[in-house]
Amino acid sequence: MLNASYFLCILLYMSFLIRSNTYTLPMAILLTGAVILVEINIINVHMSPVSAVNEESTATLKEKFTNQYAIDDSATLSVTYDVLAIWGGCCGIVDQFDFQDMELKYLQKGNESKKLQVPPTCCTRAVFEKEPANVLDCATKAENIYSEGCYVVLYHWLRKYCNIYSLIIIIKLMDMCVHTILYKRQVHRWRLMHTKQMM
């Protein structure tokens, strides 16, 4: 959102006669600098593995997950977790032991419920490639499951692509330098015009 509004301002600057205003270049420099500082601070706070925000997010998510997750539920949390677990090859929020205090049940044919130790999405891909009965067996015994938590998997994925975001910050720094050079030239022209008028 921040980047979209920033690029919209730059497009407006390039498209209209706003750039002929004497205060436009300094404002563009200040805006770019402010956006860069905000982005760097957000990245440092939210992407630090030891930050309080990260620990608080994990605890809040784990509590919500423990209270609301169900295997055959179509609620947003359950579906999102299942998709993330399959995509990331992970189990639980922190690790596979997140399910110890939960009552996971699977409804079989004839309305018979079977207690599971972990959701079927925690089972490895190799289990899914075999017979469907193996998946239920895996979830019941908690064997051949992923051990890494989904929060950790998602966190590492975000850190990996944070490097691409760093490229955007470098482009903005270059933009800020170009605006500074243009402003220096504009100030130099104003001074020359002013000295010619004084003579």
What do you see in this structure?
The chain is mainly alpha-helical and 199 residues long. A hairpin with a 5-residue loop joins β1 and β2. The mean pLDDT is 79. Strands 1-2 form a two-stranded antiparallel ribbon. α1 packs antiparallel against α2 and α2 packs antiparallel against α7. It starts with a helix and ends with a helix. It is rod-shaped.
Outline the secondary-structure elements:
Blueprint: H1 2-15, H2 24-46, H3 52-68, H4 76-88, E1 104-107, E2 113-116, H5 125-129, H6 132-141, H7 150-198
Antiparallel strand pairs: 1-2
Helix pairs in contact: 1-2, 2-7
Number of strands: 2
Number of helices: 7
Element string (H = helix, E = strand): HHHHEEHHH
Tell me the Rg in angstroms: 27 Å
Q: Fraction of residues in helices? A: 55-70%
Q: How would a textbook summarize the main sheet? A: 2 strands, antiparallel
- What is the average per-residue confidence, as pLDDT, rounded to a whole number? 79
Q: Note the beta-strand portion.
A: under 5%
Cα distance, first to last residue? Answer: 51 Å
**Biggest sheet: strand arrangement:** 1-2
Name the poorly predicted regions.
none
Q: Which structural class do you get from the secondary structure elements?
A: mainly alpha
Shape: rod-shaped
